[in-house]
Specification:
Elements: H1 29-53, H2 56-63, H3 67-73, H4 77-100, H5 108-135, H6 140-165, H7 172-193, H8 196-215, H9 222-229
Helix pairs in contact: 1-2, 1-4, 1-5, 4-5, 4-6, 5-7, 5-8, 6-7, 7-8
Amino acid sequence: MPAHRRGSKETGRFPVSPTLRQPATDRGPRAARTVANILQATKAILLARGYAGTTVDEIAKVAGISRASFYTYFPSKRDALLALGAESEHAGATMVDFAAELHHPLDEGQLLDFVRRCFAVLDDEASFAFAWTQAAQLDEEIRIAGMKGHLRICARLGRTLSKLGGRVYSDPAAAGLAILSQLERAWFYCQLYDRPILKEAVQADIAGQLMASLTATFDAPASAKRRRVG
């Protein structure tokens, strides 16, 4: 596992499990390495070509195995995608853990470190997020299952960040979704453009926007003020 991984209070598993031709408990070290190579190759191709453009032949080629070897472990590319799902949900929970480490007084330095650490997680797991959005349009089961897990992580992020500036989000899941979407999309464009200076500037801008959002004060609606006075 990558070094940034660690246990979270609520990681869970991706709700739709892959069909595995050979259960993990039956695998020896060589088989485990082959499966790891398959999943790493799947990540790379999903990120480059998307779900529709990913084929079993291409996965096998990048993994350095035969097509038959792929089918020894996975019946389809769908099952390889689902096998990545549990890792992706764990990665989302890890990003929430990063947010939980932020502390008062909040400053842009802390938030910049948070954004950079999130980008490092996305280096490993963003391929699943982008592939899932495509697969979900074709597979209702994947859409519903992935949506539940994703919104749960978004809500945790929204609640965690709201504690930092004393701001209470009326919908923590919506707030978390907006923040995660910004991180994921910005990461994707930085990968696409491959300009380190641009990446650093984008990370700093996101940190600044988070700082402004989390520390902003809002006047209560007039109706709420009247209720308090009355």
